[in-house]
Structures are given as C-alpha cells and as structure tokens.
Amino acid sequence: MATPMREHILGVAANLFSNRGINATSVDTIVAEAGIAKVTLYKYFKSKEQLIVEYLRQYDDKLWKRLKEATGKSETAPKAKLAGLVDAILDWIGDEDFKGFAFINATVEFPQLESTVHQTSIEFARTLRDTLTQLAREAGIRKPEALALQLALVIEGAAITETTQRGSGAVDHARELAHIVINSAT
Amino acid sequence: MNLLDSPWFLRMVEAAGKRPGDKLTAIFSLTKTWIAAPGIREQFALAYPPGQPRLHPCIELKRQLTDIAATARAQHPAVLASQLTILLQGAIAEEMRNPGAGALDEAANAARAVISKACGRTGSERRILAAGSALAVAGLLFGLTGLLARDAASPAALMAHAIRHTGVTHAATPSTVAISPDEMVEFIALQREISAGHCPAPHLLVLPPGQATAYMNAVNFRTPEDPAADRANMRAFLTWFKQNLSTECYFPPSNGHTTVAWVKR
Fold first, then answer.
1. How many other CB atoms are found less than 10 A from the CB of residue A105?
2. At residue A112, does pLDDT exceed 90?
3. Long-range CB contact pairs, B95-103, < 8 A, 24+
4. How far apart are CA B13 and CA B96, in angstroms?
C-alpha cells in the first residue's frame, strides 16, 4: 500500500538510516525529521523493525532496478554479462551518496541470527551472490561458487575502501581487478 | 586498534618469504591465522561499533605493499597494492560474517591472478607463488604474542575478558602455527603478572639457553628462527615456572584493600 505519506516516512527514515546508522536513529528522530506525529508513523508501520525491513526492501529494489538497466542492453556472452553486472555494482559504489550496502550494514548492526532484520539482510546478500554464481555457471566456469565469492570480496572490499577513502580510485582498481579475476577463471 | 597497519603485521609480511610475490600473497594467510586466534573476533566486535566501517584505511600496509610490488616489477605498483588491500578488506568482512567459508583463501587465489598479470609471471612461477607463505603463517602467532604482551592494557585484557566470559579455548590450531593459542594465553597472563610485580621475573642466567631465547622472543615479539623448537622451549619454561616460581606469586586483593587494618586512635 504505497501512499504519499508512507513514502514520505520511508524516504526520511532511509536517509537517516543510511547516514547515521539504523540503531542510532530513534523513532523520535524520524518523527521529528518527517514533521509528523508518532501515531501517524505507527499507522503506516507497525514497528521500527517493519520500517527497517521496508527500507531494506526498497534499497534492494532500487539496486536491482539499476543493475538490470545497466546489464539489460549489454552483450550476451556469459563472461561479458558477468563482468557487466560487476561493473554496474561498482558504479553503484562509485556514486557520491553511496554509504555502504544497506543490507551489509544492517547485518553488522543486527548480528543476532534470529532477528528479522538480520534474516532479511542475509537474504538480499544471498540473492546477489546467487546471481553471480549463476552467471559464472553459465559461462562454463569450473568452480562457479569460488569465482562468485572472489567477485563478492572485490565488491565488498571496494565498498569498504571507497567509503573510508573517498576518491582513492578504489572503484577503478576494483573494476580492473574483477576483470582479471573473471578472465583468468577457467 | 588498526591491525593491518601494526608494525608486527608489517614485519610478518616482510618476513613472509624471499620472493616479493610470496610477501604479497602472505597478507591473506597471515590474516587468516590471526582471525582464528582466540578472542580476536570479540575484539573486532568491541573495537568497531556497529554501523561504522569495520576497518581503518591501512595506509602503512598499502605503502609497504607498493614497495614490494615495485621490487616485483609490477607495472603499476600502487594500483596492485590498492587491489590487494581491497581484496583483503573484503575478505576480512566476509570472514567475520561467515567464519570458515574460505574467504581469505579465495582472496589469495584472486590475488595470485592479479599479481601474475601485473608482474607478467609464467605458469610455473605462479605455482611457486601458490606454495609460498607457509613461513609467514608459522611466525604469526608469535608476533601476536609480542603485540599483546607489549600492549597488555588493551588487547590482552580484552582477550582474557573474552575468554573468561565465553569460555573460548579454541583447541583447533593450524598445524603450522608455532605456539598454540592456549600456551600463548598462558604466557601473556604470566607476563602481565610479572610486569605488575605480582610474580617474580625469571633469572635468565639460570634458564637453559633455549628457554631463555624462547622467553625473550615472546617478550620482544621476535620471530623465532626455529618455531618448533621455540614452542617446545616455551612449554618447558611455563612448566618450570609453575613448579618453581609460581609459589612466590602474591596477588593483592583486587578491591584495593590490604589485609592490614589501620585503626585511628
């Protein structure tokens, strides 16, 4: 049920979560920032947890929309497809307002395995890894899981380096690294 | 705490082999062993509050890797160093999340590909690279011992804290490790009591030469020349201390009180 008010609350919350961290953002802060009453927030979201899960879902949708746009029109050779996907993810990391992957940050903030937020985050991270594995398999790589893991490490390392040292060229270095890894995989 | 830039880690990388390629790939095996040491995961959790980037930029490590890459005649040493640290940061994050899923091993595999591409290595040299870095692993925990013994206030305390509260003893130790984590913990605890003045320091002249060397290696975080012999000597030293000097240890009450009651008349 996407109403303008719901979208407004979610937008404000997403902004605060990604800039300040999820745990550091209280419901009071969200309410104050959004200029609404607390009751209004709870009318649209049952709990802070639900708000967090929605935020993660929206982030995931946005990421995949962007990745599909970037890879949809690219080459059909499986290895090139794989490289295209990694490039698109690295472009996402290179964005000025990139603050780390929301689902990765959330697993750090919610380490308890049984928490809904943790489980949702793990699910999103797994989708990314599975897609990489699938493309590697289509490309006829002998150990698709190993290549997918290597690429995931490149992506996460680039995300960490880029957020801690903006403008160090990490994204470009990671891109070259990913291409070498893909091309040398048999 | 910035492990990746700590002097002992940089020294371990430097000592990891003769060939520059061995040194470059050693950062992964060294880190793998380090993370497996008891209490380290807990240290991460304490040292890095949630939501913050887990690792510092590791500028010193990058500088050292750049120098090594230059001696390996890499086309762009700084770029290669940056790529290796990207892999390392990603692998540590993954290893912290999914322990034992082989993140650091796969990172090392990816590193070999990128090193051989950057330095124009042949297939046979690549295989030699793959066999490298065992030496580095052997010395790692010894370096760690030294680091913790020197900075007893933070990591060692954290480690002891973690062990007390979680009962972690980590019996599974990689076979190449010079000294077992349990012995290391025992030694660190002893060293703390000695520096605090609670236990007498051993007279090095009365110790057998091998044990004195092992003791000084651990105190000064030196890499032993012969890790296996050093381990045996360390074990012998700890047993000897327990039998001969531990009775002279005195632990004052932790609440700061003494047994003497001062009564004002």
1. 24
2. no
3. B95/B31, B95/B32, B95/B35, B96/B35, B96/B41, B96/B44, B96/B54, B97/A107, B99/B35, B99/B41, B101/A149, B102/A149, B103/A149, B103/A153
4. 21
In this structure, what token pair is assigned to residue A46? 């049952």
Pick from B82, B106, B117: which is nearest to A149 by CB?
B106
Q: In this predicted complex, what is the ipTM?
A: 0.88
Q: How many residues does chain B have?
A: 265
Residues of chain A found within 8 Å of residue B44, distances taken between Cβ atoms:
none
Q: Is the pLDDT of residue B48 over 90?
A: no
pLDDT of A110 reads 86
Rg (CA), chain B: 21
Residue A21: which H helix or E strand, with range?
none
Give the three-class secondary structure for A76. Answer: coil
What CATH number is given for A1-45 in this structure? 1.10.10.60
B 37-76: CB under 8 A from A: 45, 50-57
- Classify domain A48-184 by CATH number: 1.10.357.10
Inspect the interface and report whether the beta carbons of B103 and A149 lie closer than 8 Å: yes
pLDDT of residue A153: 94
Domain spans in chain A, listed from the N-terminal domain onward: 1-45, 48-184
Asked if residues B183 and B234 have their Cβ atoms less than 8 Å apart, the reply is yes
- Over the stretch B135-170, which tens digit does the pLDDT of each residue have? 444 444 455 444 444 444 444 444 444 444 433 333
* pTM metric for this prediction: 0.66
Say which residues have a Cβ less than 8 Å from residue B175's Cβ, sequence separation at least 6: none
